[in-house]
Design goal:
By secondary structure, the chain is of the alpha/beta class. The protein is built from 13 helices and eight strands. The radius of gyration is 30 Å and the shape is elongated. The structure holds NADP nicotinamide-adenine-dinucleotide phosphate. The site of NADP nicotinamide-adenine-dinucleotide phosphate (NAP) has 31 residues, from α1 and α4.
Length: 287
């Protein structure tokens, strides 16, 4: 089996890294295409040993499973370009947010009967094999096609089939989720958190819209302010303790303190009593 990626951006890069780390496919059986050759993700793919080309047709010819990893609005143009080159063996897997299976099938039916199409939504933690992927099966794809896709995607995390109308909800939750925080990726990637967040924000895409919402509501300031407030209060508490400005009433009394405050009880008698009790307990004497 060979795998192709139309689009060599953040998602393609993350998936290739995950697949090769999982050992489910070797880099020399993967071809990626993109118009630009000087993208950091393209050099990353090349370094991994992936075949890179600026021709989408070449990527199509060289693959059996073909991931569409371009921005959603590019999909129709790509389908017109590669449509005549699709053959029986091809399994087309669209990763594009919001693009329906029926719209892809409609385009490809202009070029051939019964194109095998799947739609999946995944996320960049696939890079550390902790992704979350859901997929839906097109009308001409077979059970084996679903199994093949599941084998690939399960190698880089959780994967399950769902009804297509659930995919948009998954996009908002786990597809965009890494932008809200992904501790494992942070630890493993050695990238700045801001960089990880940018990696999952395709310009004009679903995730950047979610982040815009968080930013408008002051989410980042809220978190910074909360941590800062806690830090300041900690210092204040320390300062108050140093100045002995905490009211005695606010200090929780230990049992010993309470006993000492009772009329007629001296600290010496309590100490002796406690020692006797302690001695009796140590020697197993029940009072
Ligand atoms: N990133 C994620 O976390 C994530 C998660 C789930 C789903 N997705 C989906 O995956 C798709 C790709 O997202 P991404 O974040 O990887 O975007 P990206 O980093 O912008 O990558 C898109 C790639 O497609 C290339 N491209 C543009 N026009 C092309 C064409 N005509 N033919 C072939 N390649 C072309 C781009 O090249 P240029 O940069 O030169 O334009 C870039 O290499 C989107 O549809 C998104 O909804 C992304």
């Amino acid at each position: 089996m060979s795998v192709g990626f139309i689009g060599a951006g953040q998602l393609a890069h993350a998936l290739v890294k995950g697949f090769t780390a999982a050992g489910v496919i070797t880099a020399n059986r993967i071809t990626a295409s993109s118009p630009d050759t000087d993208l950091p993700t393209v050099s990353g793919l090349r370094k991994m040993g992936v075949n890179f080309t600026t021709s989408n047709k070449e990527a199509t010819h060289k693959s059996d499973v073909l991931f569409l990893a371009v921005k959603p609005h590019i999909i129709p143009f790509v389908l017109d370009e590669i449509g005549p080159d699709i053959e029986d063996r091809h399994l087309i897997v669209s990763c594009a947010a919001g693009v329906t299976i029926s719209s892809i099938e409609k385009k490809l039916l202009q070029y051939r009967a019964a194109p095998k199409v799947m739609r999946c939504m995944t996320n960049t933690p696939v890079v550390v094999r902790k992704g979350a992927t859901v997929y839906a099966t097109g009308s001409h794809a077979e059970v084996e096609d679903g199994k093949l896709l599941e084998q690939l995607m399960a190698s880089v995390g959780f994967c399950t089939e769902v009804e297509e109308d659930l995919i948009d909800a998954v996009t908002g939750l786990s597809g965009s989720g890494p932008a809200y925080g992904a501790a494992k990726m942070l630890l493993d990637s050695e990238q700045h958190p801001g960089q990880l967040k940018d990696n999952v924000c395709s310009p004009g895409g679903a995730t950047i819209h979610a982040l815009h919402f968080l930013e408008s509501g002051g989410f980042r300031s809220l978190l910074i302010n909360a941590v800062e407030a806690s830090c300041i209060r900690t210092r204040e508490l320390q300062f108050l303790a140093d100045q002995e400005k905490i009211s005695p009433a606010a200090i929780k009394k230990t049992t010993l303190d309470k006993v000492l405050q009772q009329p007629g009880v001296s600290s010496t008698s309590v100490t002796i009593k406690s020692r006797v009790n302690l001695f009796n307990h140590r020697n197993g004497v029940k009072k």
